[in-house]
Write a structure and sequence with these properties.
Layout (H helix, E strand, L loop, with lengths): L4 H6 L5 E3 L8 H9 L4 E4 L5 H14 L4 E6 L5 H10 L4 E5 L7 H6 L3 E6 L2 H9 L4 E5 L5 E2 L7 H9 L6 E4 L5 H9 L4 E4 L1 H4 L8 H9 L5 E4 L6 E4 L2 H11 L4 H8 L3 H7 L23 H20 L4
Parallel strand pairs: 1-9, 2-3, 3-4, 4-5, 5-6, 6-8, 8-9
Antiparallel strand pairs: 7-11, 10-11
Helix pairs in contact: 2-3, 3-4, 8-14
């Protein structure tokens, strides 16, 4: 595959970024993805600073390739997390859920490239103004936190592309070579893939969760908790209890109290499929197998190249 803005920016073979997902994206997954030619990303959102340091050091014992760390900026320990990132000389940071202006310049002064995740043109422009090296635009098909506008990846890519000049990475609803080609045809320079790597062998997500993802069908996920962060969840007992609270006109405080703490860990990391919070993207309906991350990347690239040839032959 020819070099492009993303492969050159991140020093990788393929313009595929693995999403830095909480309770899923540890050093094993990041190293497997980086060794296969993509960009592995450690998800710091579920880690205390010293645990992140441990994951960074274990990555470096397993891979000599480029990698990144994802940091939700509203995370209570984000300042200490950034200190670890600077001390460990992490090459790339993916920031999200907060103002990129706070850390971008400081990180870049230490030689760290910064990409920021956005869900709208408005926030893309703010990120570019903050000086980021790349922007990840994520449609509402994605798992985890979503933008309030509910803009799809299909519409976000071209509308953001025409407004910014920095490299653009598309995320949300992408898990295949065809999806990657579609995103790049619309103007993306690369893709960020999350849900497909949740069901990789190396992901730290619980096997129970992986099995539920691969058995899910179209319509099995839904956006909810919009007042508390807007997430896409697999429909389980917890999800239905949340919907019952909404139907009963429960207050925000009552919903928040029911949600409590540790639901995400319980579902994704501990495998409680009834009471856990199971974040995953709509594309889960297309995922049918648990396999090594390297195999996933190879399949994506092979399908991308084959489909590129098919599209090139189309003439009207």
């Amino acid at each position: 595959m020819a070099a492009n803005k993303i492969t050159e920016l991140f020093n990788i073979n393929y313009p595929i970024v693995q999403g830095g997902m909480v309770w899923t994206s540890g050093w094993r997954l990041a190293a497997a993805v980086s060794n296969a030619g993509g960009l592995g990303v450690i998800g710091a959102g579920s880690m205390y600073p010293e645990l992140l340091r441990e994951h960074i050091q274990k990555f470096r014992k397993t891979s000599k390739k480029s990698f990144g760390v994802n940091v939700p900026l509203l995370y209570p320990h984000s300042e200490a997390i950034m200190e670890v990132i600077i001390e460990e000389k992490v090459p790339i940071v993916f920031s999200s859920a907060g103002n990129p202006k706070v850390w971008t310049s400081s990180l870049q002064q230490h030689g760290i490239k910064v990409a920021h995740v956005v869900s709208s043109v408005k926030f893309a422009l703010k990120a570019e103004k903050a000086g980021v090296d790349a922007i990840v635009t994520e449609g509402f098909e994605a798992g985890g936190h979503n933008g309030s506008t509910e803009s799809t990846t299909l519409t976000l890519i071209p509308v953001v592309k025409q407004k910014i000049s920095v490299p653009l990475i598309a995320a949300g609803g992408i898990a295949t070579g065809r999806g990657m080609l579609a995103a790049m045809t619309l103007g993306a320079d690369g893709v960020q893939i999350g849900s497909r790597f949740v069901t990789s062998n190396e992901a730290s997500s619980h096997h129970n969760f992986k099995e539920m993802v691969v058995s899910s069908e179209e319509g099995d996920t839904m956006l909810t908790l919009k007042e508390l962060g807007c997430v896409r969840l697999l429909k389980n007992d917890f999800y239905h209890q949340i919907q019952k609270l909404y139907s009963e006109k429960a207050s925000l405080a009552e919903v928040e109290n029911f949600l409590g703490k540790g639901r995400l860990r319980k579902g994704i990391f501990e495998g409680d499929l009834k009471e856990g919070k199971l974040e995953i993207g709509q594309i889960s309906a297309l995922i049918s197998e648990i396999k090594p991350a390297a195999e996933i990347i190879n399949e994506i690239i092979e399908e991308f190249n084959d489909t590129s040839s098919e599209v090139a032959a189309l003439k009207f």
